[in-house]
Amino acid sequence: MPKVWNWQLGREMEYPYEEGFPEWQFAFVFNINRCIACQTCTMACKSTWTFSKGQEHMWWNNVESKPYGGYPQGWDVKLLSLLRKANPDGQRWNGTADPKRSPYGSFKGRTIFEAAGRAPGGTDGQRVLGYLPTDQEWSAPNIHEETAAGEVMAPGDYSGSAQLPEHKVWFFYMQRICNHCTYPGCLGACPRKAIYKRPNDGVVLIDQQRCRGYRKCVEGCPYKKSMYRPTTRVSEKCVACYPRLEGKDQELSPDNEPLETRCMTACVGKIRMQGLVHLEQDGSWTPSPDSPLYYMVRERKVALPLYPQFGTSPNGFYIPPRWVPRDYLGQMFGPGVEHALEQYCCPDRELLAVMQLFRAQQQILFRWEIEKGPKVAEIEVTMPDGSHKVQEIWNDTVIGYNRSGKAVVKTTVEEPTFVRPDEHLNSI
Ligand code: SF4
Ligand code: SF4
Questions:
Q1: How far is the C-alpha of 234 from the C-alpha of 278, rounded, in Å?
Q2: Is the pTM of this model over 0.85?
Protein backbone atom coordinates (compact mmCIF):
# COMPACT_ATOMS: atom_id res chain seq x y z
CA MET A 1 0.00 0.00 0.00
CA PRO A 2 1.17 3.59 -0.62
CA LYS A 3 2.43 5.60 2.36
CA VAL A 4 0.71 8.84 3.37
CA TRP A 5 1.44 11.37 6.11
CA ASN A 6 -1.09 11.49 8.96
CA TRP A 7 -0.47 14.54 11.18
CA GLN A 8 -2.83 13.26 13.86
CA LEU A 9 -0.68 10.14 14.25
CA GLY A 10 2.60 12.00 13.79
CA ARG A 11 3.87 9.46 11.28
CA GLU A 12 3.46 7.95 7.84
CA MET A 13 0.87 5.22 7.49
CA GLU A 14 -0.38 2.81 4.83
CA TYR A 15 -3.46 3.81 2.82
CA PRO A 16 -4.94 2.14 -0.29
CA TYR A 17 -4.40 5.28 -2.44
CA GLU A 18 -1.71 7.93 -2.94
CA GLU A 19 -2.29 11.14 -1.02
CA GLY A 20 -4.01 14.10 -2.66
CA PHE A 21 -5.53 17.07 -0.90
CA PRO A 22 -8.35 19.55 -1.49
CA GLU A 23 -7.71 23.29 -1.42
CA TRP A 24 -10.13 23.76 1.46
CA GLN A 25 -11.28 21.11 3.93
CA PHE A 26 -14.70 20.93 5.60
CA ALA A 27 -14.05 20.71 9.36
CA PHE A 28 -15.90 21.32 12.61
CA VAL A 29 -15.52 21.66 16.38
CA PHE A 30 -18.11 20.27 18.81
CA ASN A 31 -18.01 21.32 22.46
CA ILE A 32 -19.29 18.23 24.29
CA ASN A 33 -19.54 20.15 27.57
CA ARG A 34 -22.43 22.23 26.26
CA CYS A 35 -24.68 19.64 24.62
CA ILE A 36 -28.13 19.11 26.16
CA ALA A 37 -29.11 16.19 23.91
CA CYS A 38 -32.21 17.96 22.61
CA GLN A 39 -31.67 16.21 19.24
CA THR A 40 -32.59 19.36 17.30
CA CYS A 41 -29.52 18.75 15.13
CA THR A 42 -30.65 15.18 14.50
CA MET A 43 -34.10 16.28 13.37
CA ALA A 44 -32.76 19.20 11.30
CA CYS A 45 -30.70 16.70 9.32
CA LYS A 46 -33.43 14.07 9.11
CA SER A 47 -36.07 16.51 7.89
CA THR A 48 -33.68 17.80 5.22
CA TRP A 49 -32.05 14.67 3.84
CA THR A 50 -33.35 11.31 5.14
CA PHE A 51 -37.14 11.50 5.38
CA SER A 52 -37.96 9.10 2.52
CA LYS A 53 -38.77 5.43 2.19
CA GLY A 54 -35.83 3.19 2.97
CA GLN A 55 -34.20 5.86 5.14
CA GLU A 56 -36.16 5.14 8.31
CA HIS A 57 -33.13 3.89 10.22
CA MET A 58 -30.73 6.34 8.61
CA TRP A 59 -29.50 9.09 10.96
CA TRP A 60 -26.62 10.96 9.34
CA ASN A 61 -26.47 13.10 12.49
CA ASN A 62 -27.01 11.35 15.80
CA VAL A 63 -26.37 12.16 19.46
CA GLU A 64 -25.67 9.14 21.66
CA SER A 65 -25.00 8.82 25.39
CA LYS A 66 -21.57 7.47 26.26
CA PRO A 67 -20.28 5.14 27.55
CA TYR A 68 -23.10 2.65 26.81
CA GLY A 69 -25.02 4.23 23.95
CA GLY A 70 -24.05 3.96 20.32
CA TYR A 71 -25.53 4.15 16.83
CA PRO A 72 -25.17 1.51 15.57
CA GLN A 73 -25.00 -0.18 18.92
CA GLY A 74 -21.44 -0.77 20.15
CA TRP A 75 -19.80 0.64 16.99
CA ASP A 76 -16.67 1.90 18.70
CA VAL A 77 -16.24 -0.90 21.23
CA LYS A 78 -16.49 -3.48 18.46
CA LEU A 79 -13.86 -1.82 16.33
CA LEU A 80 -11.56 -1.20 19.28
CA SER A 81 -11.78 -4.93 20.09
CA LEU A 82 -10.87 -5.83 16.50
CA LEU A 83 -7.96 -3.40 16.61
CA ARG A 84 -6.72 -4.79 19.88
CA LYS A 85 -6.62 -8.30 18.40
CA ALA A 86 -4.65 -6.97 15.44
CA ASN A 87 -2.30 -5.04 17.72
CA PRO A 88 -0.67 -7.59 19.98
CA ASP A 89 1.78 -4.92 21.18
CA GLY A 90 -1.00 -2.56 22.19
CA GLN A 91 -1.81 0.93 21.02
CA ARG A 92 0.76 3.35 22.34
CA TRP A 93 1.60 6.97 21.81
CA ASN A 94 5.08 8.33 22.35
CA GLY A 95 7.66 10.53 20.69
CA THR A 96 8.07 14.25 20.89
CA ALA A 97 5.28 16.52 19.84
CA ASP A 98 6.02 18.99 17.06
CA PRO A 99 3.33 21.71 16.77
CA LYS A 100 3.17 21.58 12.98
CA ARG A 101 3.94 17.98 12.00
CA SER A 102 2.84 15.91 15.01
CA PRO A 103 1.08 17.91 17.73
CA TYR A 104 0.11 14.80 19.74
CA GLY A 105 3.41 12.92 19.43
CA SER A 106 3.63 9.68 17.48
CA PHE A 107 1.29 6.66 17.40
CA LYS A 108 2.93 3.24 17.56
CA GLY A 109 -0.02 0.90 16.99
CA ARG A 110 -1.67 -0.23 13.75
CA THR A 111 -4.47 1.74 12.09
CA ILE A 112 -7.53 0.17 10.46
CA PHE A 113 -5.62 0.18 7.16
CA GLU A 114 -2.47 -1.41 8.57
CA ALA A 115 -4.41 -3.96 10.61
CA ALA A 116 -6.61 -5.10 7.70
CA GLY A 117 -6.19 -8.81 7.04
CA ARG A 118 -4.14 -9.23 10.21
CA ALA A 119 -7.02 -9.50 12.69
CA PRO A 120 -8.49 -12.93 13.40
CA GLY A 121 -11.56 -13.25 11.20
CA GLY A 122 -10.24 -10.71 8.68
CA THR A 123 -9.85 -11.81 5.08
CA ASP A 124 -6.72 -11.53 2.95
CA GLY A 125 -8.37 -9.21 0.45
CA GLN A 126 -9.68 -6.84 3.12
CA ARG A 127 -8.22 -3.35 2.61
CA VAL A 128 -9.76 -1.77 5.70
CA LEU A 129 -10.36 -3.41 9.06
CA GLY A 130 -14.06 -3.24 9.91
CA TYR A 131 -17.32 -5.10 10.35
CA LEU A 132 -20.89 -4.92 9.10
CA PRO A 133 -23.40 -4.07 11.87
CA THR A 134 -26.55 -6.17 12.08
CA ASP A 135 -30.00 -4.74 11.31
CA GLN A 136 -30.76 -4.91 15.01
CA GLU A 137 -27.73 -2.79 15.86
CA TRP A 138 -29.00 -0.04 13.54
CA SER A 139 -32.54 -0.19 14.91
CA ALA A 140 -32.32 1.72 18.22
CA PRO A 141 -30.40 4.96 17.62
CA ASN A 142 -30.77 6.27 21.14
CA ILE A 143 -30.33 3.09 23.10
CA HIS A 144 -28.97 3.58 26.65
CA GLU A 145 -29.73 7.29 26.58
CA GLU A 146 -28.46 8.86 29.81
CA THR A 147 -27.41 5.56 31.32
CA ALA A 148 -24.60 6.46 33.69
CA ALA A 149 -21.43 4.58 34.58
CA GLY A 150 -19.32 4.87 37.69
CA GLU A 151 -19.22 3.98 41.35
CA VAL A 152 -22.31 2.56 43.03
CA MET A 153 -23.01 4.74 46.05
CA ALA A 154 -24.95 4.12 49.22
CA PRO A 155 -28.66 5.04 49.01
CA GLY A 156 -29.09 8.77 49.54
CA ASP A 157 -25.40 9.55 49.05
CA TYR A 158 -25.20 11.98 46.15
CA SER A 159 -21.89 13.53 47.15
CA GLY A 160 -20.01 11.92 44.28
CA SER A 161 -22.13 13.44 41.58
CA ALA A 162 -21.73 17.01 42.82
CA GLN A 163 -17.97 17.23 42.62
CA LEU A 164 -15.96 18.66 39.77
CA PRO A 165 -13.72 18.06 37.98
CA GLU A 166 -14.67 14.36 38.13
CA HIS A 167 -18.07 13.03 39.04
CA LYS A 168 -18.02 9.53 40.44
CA VAL A 169 -21.06 8.83 38.31
CA TRP A 170 -20.82 10.00 34.74
CA PHE A 171 -22.09 9.89 31.19
CA PHE A 172 -21.89 12.37 28.35
CA TYR A 173 -23.52 13.14 25.04
CA MET A 174 -21.59 12.37 21.91
CA GLN A 175 -22.63 14.25 18.77
CA ARG A 176 -21.71 12.47 15.57
CA ILE A 177 -21.75 13.18 11.87
CA CYS A 178 -19.48 12.02 9.05
CA ASN A 179 -15.98 13.40 9.65
CA HIS A 180 -15.23 13.90 5.95
CA CYS A 181 -11.94 12.25 6.75
CA THR A 182 -8.66 13.07 5.03
CA TYR A 183 -8.10 9.32 4.49
CA PRO A 184 -11.66 7.98 4.49
CA GLY A 185 -12.15 4.34 5.44
CA CYS A 186 -15.31 4.25 3.31
CA LEU A 187 -13.42 5.44 0.22
CA GLY A 188 -10.49 3.10 0.83
CA ALA A 189 -12.79 0.09 1.14
CA CYS A 190 -15.01 0.71 -1.92
CA PRO A 191 -14.18 -1.78 -4.71
CA ARG A 192 -16.13 0.29 -7.28
CA LYS A 193 -14.27 3.57 -6.70
CA ALA A 194 -17.71 5.08 -6.19
CA ILE A 195 -16.63 7.31 -3.30
CA TYR A 196 -14.67 10.49 -3.83
CA LYS A 197 -13.41 13.56 -2.01
CA ARG A 198 -14.28 16.88 -3.63
CA PRO A 199 -11.14 18.84 -4.60
CA ASN A 200 -12.57 22.19 -3.55
CA ASP A 201 -13.86 21.45 -0.03
CA GLY A 202 -12.85 17.89 0.92
CA VAL A 203 -16.47 16.74 1.27
CA VAL A 204 -16.71 12.95 0.87
CA LEU A 205 -19.56 11.82 -1.40
CA ILE A 206 -20.88 8.53 -2.80
CA ASP A 207 -21.59 8.50 -6.55
CA GLN A 208 -25.08 7.00 -6.58
CA GLN A 209 -24.66 5.83 -10.19
CA ARG A 210 -21.44 3.92 -9.59
CA CYS A 211 -22.41 2.37 -6.24
CA ARG A 212 -23.64 -1.24 -6.47
CA GLY A 213 -24.55 -1.60 -2.79
CA TYR A 214 -21.75 -3.99 -1.81
CA ARG A 215 -21.65 -2.21 1.59
CA LYS A 216 -17.87 -2.31 1.82
CA CYS A 217 -18.05 1.39 2.83
CA VAL A 218 -20.42 0.51 5.68
CA GLU A 219 -17.89 -2.09 6.78
CA GLY A 220 -14.87 0.18 6.25
CA CYS A 221 -16.09 3.39 7.90
CA PRO A 222 -14.86 3.07 11.48
CA TYR A 223 -17.42 5.66 12.60
CA LYS A 224 -20.25 3.82 10.84
CA LYS A 225 -21.41 6.91 8.99
CA SER A 226 -21.95 5.30 5.61
CA MET A 227 -25.36 3.62 5.50
CA TYR A 228 -27.15 1.20 3.19
CA ARG A 229 -30.59 2.03 1.78
CA PRO A 230 -32.57 -1.11 0.99
CA THR A 231 -35.11 0.56 -1.31
CA THR A 232 -32.49 1.86 -3.75
CA ARG A 233 -29.87 -0.82 -2.96
CA VAL A 234 -27.06 1.68 -2.75
CA SER A 235 -25.26 3.37 0.13
CA GLU A 236 -25.76 6.94 1.27
CA LYS A 237 -24.01 9.25 3.72
CA CYS A 238 -23.83 12.81 5.04
CA VAL A 239 -23.30 15.25 2.17
CA ALA A 240 -22.15 18.15 4.41
CA CYS A 241 -25.20 20.10 3.16
CA TYR A 242 -23.04 20.98 0.15
CA PRO A 243 -25.54 23.36 -1.48
CA ARG A 244 -25.25 25.50 1.67
CA LEU A 245 -21.49 25.10 1.71
CA GLU A 246 -21.39 26.37 -1.87
CA GLY A 247 -23.49 29.40 -0.92
CA LYS A 248 -26.36 28.28 -3.16
CA ASP A 249 -29.14 28.96 -0.64
CA GLN A 250 -30.39 32.17 -2.23
CA GLU A 251 -32.80 33.01 0.56
CA LEU A 252 -30.24 32.84 3.36
CA SER A 253 -27.18 33.73 1.35
CA PRO A 254 -28.01 36.13 -1.49
CA ASP A 255 -24.31 36.97 -1.83
CA ASN A 256 -23.34 33.29 -2.29
CA GLU A 257 -21.42 33.18 0.97
CA PRO A 258 -20.82 29.66 2.36
CA LEU A 259 -23.29 28.65 5.05
CA GLU A 260 -22.88 26.13 7.85
CA THR A 261 -24.79 22.84 7.63
CA ARG A 262 -28.33 22.31 8.93
CA CYS A 263 -27.22 20.39 12.02
CA MET A 264 -24.74 23.12 12.95
CA THR A 265 -27.07 26.09 12.51
CA ALA A 266 -29.96 24.41 14.33
CA CYS A 267 -27.93 23.63 17.46
CA VAL A 268 -29.78 24.87 20.53
CA GLY A 269 -26.89 24.33 22.94
CA LYS A 270 -24.51 26.42 20.81
CA ILE A 271 -21.99 23.60 20.86
CA ARG A 272 -21.11 23.52 17.15
CA MET A 273 -18.85 25.53 14.91
CA GLN A 274 -18.09 24.60 11.34
CA GLY A 275 -15.39 25.95 9.11
CA LEU A 276 -13.40 25.50 5.94
CA VAL A 277 -9.71 25.02 6.64
CA HIS A 278 -7.19 26.06 4.01
CA LEU A 279 -4.66 23.35 3.13
CA GLU A 280 -1.14 23.56 1.73
CA GLN A 281 -0.16 21.31 -1.18
CA ASP A 282 1.28 18.75 1.25
CA GLY A 283 -2.04 18.61 3.14
CA SER A 284 -0.87 20.57 6.18
CA TRP A 285 -3.13 23.30 7.53
CA THR A 286 -2.09 26.74 6.33
CA PRO A 287 -1.11 28.61 9.51
CA SER A 288 -3.94 31.08 10.16
CA PRO A 289 -4.51 31.72 13.87
CA ASP A 290 -7.18 34.27 13.02
CA SER A 291 -9.40 31.46 11.64
CA PRO A 292 -11.60 30.22 14.53
CA LEU A 293 -11.15 26.54 13.55
CA TYR A 294 -7.38 26.79 13.14
CA TYR A 295 -7.11 28.69 16.41
CA MET A 296 -9.02 26.10 18.45
CA VAL A 297 -7.61 22.94 16.85
CA ARG A 298 -4.01 23.77 15.93
CA GLU A 299 -3.07 26.86 17.93
CA ARG A 300 -4.67 26.10 21.30
CA LYS A 301 -5.32 22.36 20.85
CA VAL A 302 -8.52 22.64 22.86
CA ALA A 303 -10.44 20.42 20.40
CA LEU A 304 -9.30 16.88 19.53
CA PRO A 305 -10.01 14.28 16.83
CA LEU A 306 -12.32 11.36 17.66
CA TYR A 307 -10.38 8.06 17.86
CA PRO A 308 -7.34 9.34 15.95
CA GLN A 309 -5.81 5.85 16.25
CA PHE A 310 -8.27 4.57 13.62
CA GLY A 311 -6.06 6.41 11.10
CA THR A 312 -8.64 8.12 8.87
CA SER A 313 -7.56 11.61 10.03
CA PRO A 314 -11.11 12.75 10.80
CA ASN A 315 -11.91 16.43 10.33
CA GLY A 316 -14.31 16.63 13.28
CA PHE A 317 -12.77 17.82 16.56
CA TYR A 318 -14.21 17.69 20.06
CA ILE A 319 -13.69 19.69 23.24
CA PRO A 320 -13.72 16.78 25.71
CA PRO A 321 -16.15 16.68 28.67
CA ARG A 322 -14.56 17.86 31.93
CA TRP A 323 -16.15 15.34 34.29
CA VAL A 324 -15.26 12.07 32.60
CA PRO A 325 -12.43 9.75 33.78
CA ARG A 326 -9.24 10.63 31.96
CA ASP A 327 -8.33 7.11 30.83
CA TYR A 328 -11.68 6.83 29.03
CA LEU A 329 -11.11 10.19 27.33
CA GLY A 330 -7.52 9.26 26.49
CA GLN A 331 -8.69 6.19 24.59
CA MET A 332 -11.28 8.24 22.74
CA PHE A 333 -9.35 11.43 21.91
CA GLY A 334 -5.69 10.47 22.20
CA PRO A 335 -2.90 12.01 24.27
CA GLY A 336 -4.04 15.65 23.97
CA VAL A 337 -6.81 15.37 26.58
CA GLU A 338 -5.06 16.88 29.62
CA HIS A 339 -3.82 19.86 27.67
CA ALA A 340 -7.24 20.45 26.07
CA LEU A 341 -9.02 20.36 29.41
CA GLU A 342 -6.49 22.64 31.03
CA GLN A 343 -7.21 25.18 28.28
CA TYR A 344 -10.96 24.76 28.48
CA CYS A 345 -11.39 24.81 32.26
CA CYS A 346 -9.77 28.22 32.60
CA PRO A 347 -9.89 29.86 29.17
CA ASP A 348 -7.81 32.98 28.75
CA ARG A 349 -9.03 36.19 27.21
CA GLU A 350 -8.69 35.15 23.56
CA LEU A 351 -10.06 31.65 23.88
CA LEU A 352 -13.08 32.86 25.82
CA ALA A 353 -13.77 35.44 23.12
CA VAL A 354 -13.52 32.91 20.25
CA MET A 355 -15.90 30.56 22.03
CA GLN A 356 -18.61 33.24 21.89
CA LEU A 357 -18.78 32.69 18.12
CA PHE A 358 -20.40 29.26 18.38
CA ARG A 359 -23.82 29.53 16.78
CA ALA A 360 -23.78 33.31 16.61
CA GLN A 361 -24.72 33.31 12.88
CA GLN A 362 -25.33 30.98 9.91
CA GLN A 363 -22.43 31.93 7.64
CA ILE A 364 -19.09 30.17 7.88
CA LEU A 365 -16.53 32.32 9.66
CA PHE A 366 -13.09 32.57 8.09
CA ARG A 367 -11.57 35.15 10.46
CA TRP A 368 -12.10 36.60 13.90
CA GLU A 369 -10.76 39.57 15.83
CA ILE A 370 -11.24 41.21 19.20
CA GLU A 371 -12.02 44.77 20.23
CA LYS A 372 -10.75 45.01 23.78
CA GLY A 373 -13.18 45.84 26.60
CA PRO A 374 -12.93 46.30 30.39
CA LYS A 375 -12.23 43.59 32.96
CA VAL A 376 -15.56 42.64 34.53
CA ALA A 377 -14.77 39.76 36.89
CA GLU A 378 -12.21 37.53 38.51
CA ILE A 379 -13.37 34.05 39.50
CA GLU A 380 -11.62 31.14 41.16
CA VAL A 381 -11.61 28.01 39.03
CA THR A 382 -10.87 24.41 40.06
CA MET A 383 -8.53 22.83 37.54
CA PRO A 384 -8.60 19.16 36.42
CA ASP A 385 -5.68 18.34 38.76
CA GLY A 386 -7.51 19.86 41.75
CA SER A 387 -5.42 23.04 41.87
CA HIS A 388 -7.03 26.47 41.74
CA LYS A 389 -6.58 29.31 39.28
CA VAL A 390 -7.99 32.79 39.01
CA GLN A 391 -9.78 33.43 35.74
CA GLU A 392 -10.02 37.00 34.54
CA ILE A 393 -13.05 37.87 32.48
CA TRP A 394 -12.80 40.74 30.02
CA ASN A 395 -15.87 42.06 28.31
CA ASP A 396 -14.27 42.08 24.87
CA THR A 397 -16.22 42.34 21.65
CA VAL A 398 -15.51 39.56 19.19
CA ILE A 399 -16.14 40.02 15.49
CA GLY A 400 -16.49 37.22 12.92
CA TYR A 401 -15.91 37.69 9.17
CA ASN A 402 -17.25 35.68 6.24
CA ARG A 403 -15.29 34.53 3.17
CA SER A 404 -15.48 37.96 1.53
CA GLY A 405 -14.13 39.65 4.65
CA LYS A 406 -17.46 41.16 5.66
CA ALA A 407 -18.22 41.35 9.40
CA VAL A 408 -21.27 39.11 9.88
CA VAL A 409 -21.31 38.81 13.65
CA LYS A 410 -20.33 41.11 16.49
CA THR A 411 -20.94 39.99 20.05
CA THR A 412 -19.63 40.67 23.54
CA VAL A 413 -18.31 38.19 26.11
CA GLU A 414 -20.85 39.41 28.66
CA GLU A 415 -24.34 39.09 27.28
CA PRO A 416 -26.41 42.24 27.78
CA THR A 417 -29.48 41.92 30.04
CA PHE A 418 -32.68 43.64 29.00
CA VAL A 419 -35.37 44.24 31.65
CA ARG A 420 -38.92 44.41 30.32
CA PRO A 421 -40.57 47.62 31.58
CA ASP A 422 -43.58 47.26 33.88
CA GLU A 423 -46.06 48.58 31.32
CA HIS A 424 -45.10 45.81 28.85
CA LEU A 425 -44.88 42.91 31.31
CA ASN A 426 -47.50 40.80 29.52
CA SER A 427 -47.16 42.03 25.97
CA ILE A 428 -44.77 41.65 23.11
S1 SF4 B 1 -16.53 9.30 8.81
FE2 SF4 B 1 -16.80 7.37 7.70
S3 SF4 B 1 -18.23 7.87 6.03
FE4 SF4 B 1 -17.33 9.81 6.76
S5 SF4 B 1 -15.54 10.15 5.42
FE6 SF4 B 1 -14.81 9.14 7.33
S7 SF4 B 1 -14.79 6.98 6.77
FE8 SF4 B 1 -16.11 7.97 5.22
S1 SF4 C 1 -28.81 20.53 18.77
FE2 SF4 C 1 -26.84 20.95 19.80
S3 SF4 C 1 -27.38 20.81 22.00
FE4 SF4 C 1 -29.06 19.81 20.89
S5 SF4 C 1 -28.44 17.62 20.78
FE6 SF4 C 1 -27.66 18.58 18.90
S7 SF4 C 1 -25.54 19.13 19.40
FE8 SF4 C 1 -26.59 18.78 21.36
A1: 32
A2: yes
